[in-house]
Amino acid sequence: MNLLDRHVRIAVLLSIAIVLGIIVSLDLIFSLIDELGESGVDYTVGNALLYVALTTPTSIYELLPFAALGGTIFGLGVLASNNELVVMQTAGVHKWRIVLAVLKPALLVMVLGLLLGEYASPALEQVANSNKAIQLSGSSSINSETGTWHKIGNDFIHINAIAPGGVQLYGVSRYTANDDRQLISASFTESAQYIEDGDGAYWRMNNVRQSRFFGSRISTTSYSQENWTADLSPQLLSLLLVEPGNQSISGLYRFARFFQTEGLDSSIYFLAFWKKLLQPLSTLVLVVLAISFVFGPLREATMGYRIFIALGIGLAFTTIQRMMEPVSLIYGLSPLMAVLTPILLSACLGLLLMRRVS
Question: Hey, which of 58, 168, 227, 289 would disulfide with 121, CB 3.0 to 4.6 Å?
Answer without folding.
Answer: 58
